[in-house]
Amino acid sequence: MQYNKCPLKYFPSKHVKYKILANKNIVEKRFLHQSTMLFRRFRINFSDGFSFGFLAVSVVSVFIFEILIVLPEVEKRQNVVYIHSIIGSFIFISILGNLAKVILTDTSTKRIMLPSLLKPLWHFCSMCEANAPPRTHHCDRCNCCILKRDHHCAFAGRCIGLKNFRFFLVFLFYLSIGCFYASMFNMYFIWDYLGGFSLYSVVCHIVPFVFFIFGYLSFRVFIYTLLSVLALISGLLVFNLFILHARQMLSNQTTFERNNSIKTYDLGWKRNIVECLGEKWYMTLISPFFDSVLPSDGLSFSTNLNSNTVLPESYALNQNVRHRHV
């Protein structure tokens, strides 16, 4: 009795099956490796993640609240509503766009070939085991050295340094404007729900949670009041931060240099603006996606010192051992 012989290709051998399983394991390992590398690149701890989540939820919530609820009720003229909607949307996009650039812009020394010899004004980082340029400091949270490090921003989960300082400053600028812009409409909106402007409504606006617990506010009015006071308080805090960093920009100082009274890099307020925001600094106010080339590469900076000037003691950082600060 004879049987029809099927071609061999319809009956894969064992080594073909093993090859398919091996390829599947390789794909899974590559996916895990890429996921791990992505997590390491965007190193986020709990405090940074919570701060970023709070910021993102607050900005989106206040924007939706103002556009869909407050604005149509405060302003009855449809053409004026369109104008305010366009202005509010531009501020909202500018806030998120600059925040994204702060997060995605790498301002560390990871991808820079650093010299093995210690140059003047340079110092050695014992954590990175590499020489570091002037104005560079090590961040314990980011676990790397940051060019012209200013501080670690918990809301962005990133250090603010040479390449993303302009995005951070414009982010503060538009966030403060957005908060005050929203608070202006909220002052016309919220008092109607709190029974008019009075001492009772003012106290209720300041601590709405207490009035909600004791049943003096409904859940809807509580949420409205909470968003209103969030915009107002955030605007005051963010505006103070903006003024602080704007003053540092005008003197071309980082937070460390301001605290230690280092004014070596002060070139005059006009040149300081270019040093911090780039040659096309005015374009950064329009959109974070416009290119504005910085004069410094992060490895050397222009100073106001003469060749015969003795350098301040602040540059002798522990006898050329890398200075670390949070």
TrEMBL record:
Question: Which GO molecular function terms does the record list?
Answer: protein-cysteine S-palmitoyltransferase activity
GO CC list: membrane
Q: State the UniProt keywords alphabetically.
A: Acyltransferase, Membrane, Transferase, Transmembrane, Transmembrane helix
Q: In what way does this protein cross or attach to the membrane?
A: Multi-pass membrane protein
**A Pfam family this chain is assigned to:** DHHC
Q: Palmitoyltransferase DHHC domain: from which residue to which, for each copy?
A: 123-260
Q: Where in the cell is it found?
A: Membrane
Q: Where are the transmembrane segments?
A: 50-70, 82-104, 167-191, 197-217, 224-244
Catalytic reaction list: L-cysteinyl-[protein] + hexadecanoyl-CoA = S-hexadecanoyl-L-cysteinyl-[protein] + CoA
Domain commentary: The DHHC domain is required for palmitoyltransferase activity.
Output this protein's name.
Palmitoyltransferase
Tell me what organism the protein belongs to: Oedothorax gibbosus
